[in-house]
Amino acid sequence: MVKKRKSEPQLLSSVQNALRILKSFSTFDTSKKVSDLAESLGLAKSTVSRLLATLASEGFVVKNDKSGKYSLGLSVLTLGGVLTNNLEIYKEAGPVLSKLVNDTGETSHLAIMDGLDTIYIHKEECNHPVRILTHIGRRNPSYCTSSGKVLLAFDENGAVEKVIEQGLEAHTENSVTDPDELREHLASIRENGYAISTEELREGIKSVAAPIRDHTGKVVSAITVVGPLQRMTPNKIPDIAKKVMAAGKDASERMGYDERYFKRMRG
């Protein structure tokens, strides 16, 4: 008797297209016209118009009557708040980020891996009048940021090779674009316990990151400080790296990680 294959789940194209619309907005492209969305997504204007009207009725987008452009609505922010408030790492690392800002004088972030990109999920600003513009929820290529390189260095799911297969695009002249160089760099991060990124994604910016582990010892997040080159000078980096690693250790312990236990297991 031939077994029947389980049928694939029936996906609703209208829901998929509505989600594609929401995901098309970014920190650099915050508002769009119906025609812009239709062209970029390959959809009919009438389809986009109906989907936007539905999303607007639920508060996920809002329309500017003067410009005719749509932008994200507060319902998106509400869902984001529900998500971050239920992320254990978000709740446990908050006080650690604040202390790290006080200890280093620079803005601190919490980052996780989503697919092959790195996303900031929490941020504590420094008090300097000149600050680095960063955004919670923004996707960054992992191989160009210190937090992303930490997450790649300790990844256990083959993300490094997938990133390499995807292509190492140069964002600045300092971006690592050679696969072997990236592999060597990540090996060094595993040995040293922290990563540095100097103008690899944006010019004039340096960052230092360290891993955060959960109770199983798995690296689930990265903690990082970011600042301009004129403040993040070479002579300050060793001290900053020490403080970032201490913050990562503190956050890991809050997540239930017991370093002594894992050392005994390895030894």
UniProtKB/TrEMBL annotation:
Q: What region holds the IclR-ED domain?
A: 75-257
Tell me yes or no: is Coiled coil among this UniProt entry's keywords: no
Q: Which GO terms describe its biological process?
A: negative regulation of DNA-templated transcription
Every HTH iclR-type domain range: 12-74
Pfam families attached to this UniProt entry: HTH_IclR, IclR_C
InterPro entries registered for this protein in UniProt: GAF-like_dom_sf, HTH_MetabolicPath_Reg, Tscrpt_reg_IclR_C, Tscrpt_reg_IclR_N, WH-like_DNA-bd_sf, WH_DNA-bd_sf
Q: How is this protein named in the record?
A: Glycerol operon regulatory protein
Does the keyword field hold DNA-binding?
A: yes
The family database entries (SMART domains) matched by this protein are listed as: HTH_ICLR (SM00346)
Described by its record, this protein's role is as follows: May be an activator protein for the gylABX operon.
Q: Which UniProt keywords apply?
A: DNA-binding, Transcription, Transcription regulation
Q: Which GO terms describe its molecular function?
A: DNA binding; DNA-binding transcription factor activity
